[in-house]
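BUG-709 | component: ligand-complex export | severity: low

The export step for adenosine-5'-triphosphate jobs runs without errors, but we want the raw record kept on the ticket for reference. Input record follows.
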Amino acid sequence: MDFLKTLNPNQIRATEASEGRVRVVAGAGSGKTRVLAHRFAFLVNDLGIAPGNILCLTFTNKAAQEMKHRISSMVDRGAVNDFICTIHSFCVKFLRREIYRIGYPKNFSILDEEDAKTLAKQAMNEFGVDRKKLTAERFLTKVAMLKGYDIDAYIQRHLLPASSSDCPDAQVRYLRLQLKQYALDYDDLIYFTIYILNHFPDARSYWTDKLNYIMVDEAQDCSADDWHLLKILAEGHGNLFVVGDPDQAIYEWRGANPRMFVDFKAATDVILDRNYRSTPDILDVANSIIAHNRNRVPKDLYTARLNERRVIYRHHKSEREEAETIAATIAEGIRNGAKANSFAVLFRSSFISRTIEQALLKQKLPYAVWGGVRFFERREIKDVVSYLKLIASDNDDVAFSRIINLPARKFGAASMKELSLIAEEREAPLFTTLRSLIVEGHRRFDRPAMRQFVELIEQGRRLAASIPVSELTDRILVDSRLADLYRMDEKEERLENVNELINAMKEFERVQRDDGDMTLDGYLQEIALYTNPDAATDADRVKLMTIHQSKGLEFDTVFVTGLTEGIFPNHRSIRERRQDGEEEERRLMYVAVTRAINMLYLSEAEGYLNDSGAMKYPSRFLVEVPDGLLEVQGDPDPVLFEGTRRLVAGLNAELGEGSEEVWAPGTRVTHRVFGEGEIVRFDPQAQSYRVRFVGGERDLLPRVLTRKP
Ligand code: ATP
Ligand code: MG
């Protein structure tokens, strides 16, 4: 096939190895993602496989869009976008077809973090849990533990419509509330999918038969649950193709398990070692930093490209100077003909974006923040979406509570309490309860404002069947007077955000028109998976983002900012996870540096740290680059690097001491998933602790435990 001419021999081997278990292990910019796209086209064009029989998993929604785009230019048949998606969106597609089997409606809802917190607070209030002692976040971690222990048991006991209705504590109450509105959180999407596959053989054979080929990008960041699901899905045809780079594993803190990718037993193993993305100097900087990780299989990347300009390290007297220098460099580049979107500014923590944003605004440079305040978590967006959610489903009590008094309809806490009680008695959702009470002429609820509200939602339902979501939203904004409210608030930003939402809906409608699924339900399930407005993707703007967000992407010019010891590497991560924490920080640095195609700027500034007030010193990662590789600007005082060395040595000594001592039985410790527990004993042979948690005992390595002060 012609399109294979643009690949090197190893890439072609990976592309054409269609059968069995295949793995590609390769460094950044070596064409892993490119191979994935070509392989999809090869399967369709050369082997005649229908796109609907191929599952192609990417790590983010954005990456999925990009992948669809690349692939559709290479294949000639039909819609290709059925199953090019993230693992969570795959589960949503799966569940829309299969969830009826366990008594859930097709339009089940998806809880994001804020929805979950609202439910958690309700359950905690009902059981009189002191929220000053236990935050909603901690509460949810406990619920996650409860789920993680035994997926089958918690689904059967708590989340099936037939489960018992007794409610011993707030956590179980939370699950009941979740069930009442048929809501799934992100973990549940995977758990429910696995549950159905395990309990319904005909569903299992349908899907394992349908999915002839499964491909996974960024497999180093899959969790054990993800791998479990992949294993089941691939059991029919046995064709599982995984690509990844262990040096870019950056989600261990959130449960990813890179070991499972490293240990993956493949029939065909392909290594790619030529980097097509970056100049030799950029690559040398990346290679020299990652070489400091002890826990890795050494691999080196080479490039046939030529150096154009050197990698620059800039030291600054203040954060403001750092930000202004970046903005000035970008402005100059644009004057010389570069496009704004060829520049990306990367940082370890999102708070750093503020100074950069201000500097860019001053220079009147267009920019977009990815992963700042997440678009769909902004207040006004949640308001509007709640209207849509209630229109989509009677059961959505969270949405109802959010909008019943927005704009104000004289529906305060007392009304809410009374309505909840009645709804509870009747075992009905809040909205239908309100509707019945109006019909019954209830003194409190049968009044014009309530009637109008119910009519507004009912009218929305009639409209939803005939007009697109974007138009429906427009109507609701006007009819509910929400638009007036935002206008009166004199907060331009809110209206702009709402307009951006409508924009994003139109985008959705354009994409979905071919698939024939532009229903309100389809839209709501889609956006529940978003963390950002995807509409901003193509605009010509400077891109600001955290390094986590930049994974898999490439930009002509990259600024890695805030390279201060403590911020990057982040000392909190190192304190919590010691060497593992440090190495994950270093992999983040490797990811950041390898995003650059032609030009890379590393920068940091003098001053004091926000949290501790301690003096700032340059990051150890800057020290790890061999002399002469960086062009140094801003004349940093050598004393500063002495400070870095002292700081690193001090931290190592502090953590080193703690790790040699053996904790006595009874010592209180915490674990990120299992929560708080107590040491039972130490097993010197296995070098592990037996720890007693609320849900049972576990044998765990010291590095995953933190001693409670
Ligand atoms: P990352 O690890 O950052 O995700 P990757 O291994 O997925 O990187 P790609 O994004 O697929 O790498 O490729 C990096 C760049 O190199 C892209 O611009 C891609 O088009 C280009 N490239 C890859 N292989 C070739 C090739 N054989 N010929 C020309 N360009 C290539
Ligand atoms: Mg990639």
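Assignee comment: Attached the raw record above. The two ends are 63 Å apart (CA to CA).
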